[in-house]
């Protein structure tokens, strides 16, 4: 088992602590949080070992799980990597692109592994259809959330939209050509609502909308490709797959047939992929352990996390 320590014992940090403590892949050594009052409260309530010194915790483990505010991601990761520790780091990978690129160099120099916590890659709905998403040419995403002060220290693009940016980049095999975006600050000092249009070199267009001041929660993505429409509800863990194929010469009584202007006839049919319930956070942590143990590439690499951050920052810059 890999010895692991957690940096940060806030809302998400406590979830990581619980899951790592239950995992068969890790031995939870303890955690560090600069808020001593909160740290002692968490330690007393759950029994996790609290380290008063960040370096002492890093020295005691094989893997450092960084669940701190974004502003401190790079400093925490740098301390761990320089001591030869593997790092799991929550999204976004770092606060700036320069920090992310420095981290990539540090990790390469030290020969350790890193993974970024883009948890939607492990969403069971997305997993059930990812292999069916083939050269999408139009993508539309809506990620709406009710207001929560937690996370408002960064723009909504880095707080929410980056989930969809990473998912899109994982299925579109093309470089970004152009980005146009707008953002509005309503409650926070940084934008709370954002819309971005990403054009790729291969002609694919992605239209992304994110809001953290909505009256209801929504996390939906729609992928349109040749002869297929795929809808993923990340919140409800549901999918819709609608496909078209050449219509048979003698359609059945219940076949749905469409005919285009050129006279081509297509039969519409539906697929219902199995969505297997899982704990996405536990899966991302345990697949990282497997990557370390088997010396394989993590599911969400630091390079991919950097790519998502680069696009996110380009969106913010275009406001």
Summarize the structure.
This protein has 319 residues and is α/β, with parallel strands linked by helices. Helix content is 33%, strand content 29%.
By secondary-structure content and strand pairing, the structural class works out as alpha/beta
Strand order of the largest sheet: 7-8-9-6-10-11-12-14-13
CATH class designation of the largest domain: Alpha Beta
- Write down the overall mean pLDDT: 95
Radius of gyration: 22 Å
Principal-axes geometry comes out as globular
Our estimate of the beta-strand percent is 25-35%
Number of helices: 9
Extract low-pLDDT stretches.
none
CATH architecture of the largest domain: 2-Layer Sandwich
Comma- or semicolon-separated keywords:
NAD(P)-bd_dom_sf, Rossmann fold, Dihydrodipicolinate Reductase, domain 2, alpha/beta, nucleotide binding, 319 residues, 2 domains
Describe the structure.
The protein has two domains: 2-112, NAD(P)-binding Rossmann-like Domain (Rossmann fold); 121-275 and 312-317, Dihydrodipicolinate Reductase, domain 2, CATH 3.30.360.10. The protein is built from nine helices and 14 strands. It has helices at 11-22, 36-46, 54-59, 73-82, 97-110, 124-129, 156-171, 280-294, 302-317, and strands at residues 2-7, 26-32, 63-66, 86-90, 114-117, 138-144, 176-184, 193-200, 205-211, 218-225, 228-233, 238-246, 256-259, 265-271. A hairpin with a 2-residue loop joins strand 10 and strand 11 (228-233). The protein is globular. 38% of the residues are buried. The mean pLDDT is 95.
